[in-house]
Amino acid sequence: MIVLGVDPGTRITGYGVVDGGDRGRPVLIECGVIRPASRSLPRRLLEILEGLDGVIERTRPDVLCVEGVFYGRNAQTTLKLGQARGAVMLAAARRGMSVTEYPPAEVKNVVVGSGRAGKRQVALMVQKHLALAEPPAPEDAADGVALALCHLFQSGLTAAASKGRGAGRKGID
Fold it and tell me: Which residues are catalytic?
């Protein structure tokens, strides 16, 4: 199974594509970030959609995983994050892909072993799980990869052991 994990944002959207292999060690196919250049929010959302369309076209994932909404102190930021998530989900829906949502703390717990892990810890554990020479960069890309790994680990699709198998996953089909 090939999983596309997406860490949405209107300024930077990180993504990672991981192949679960045949119940062996997961393999990184591609990761990176989409940095919309436009100043207008509607144009940035379109750039996110088009960027993910390209990733989906190149890598042909089976499922898309997106980071769940977290509630910050700034309502404006939370609203913009929701709009970015909408663009991500639309990219999947246009291809008939299923979408699964994971809360940030669950991703960290499953991949790192602590729901309070920092971005650097996540990147280092992604490096370890995938036996990479370096952690994925930038950290937003590592977060996308962590989402894909979380889905593979939670689904039991790899032989890799994970510590926290919570019940926070939510299918959004």
Answer: 7, 67, 140
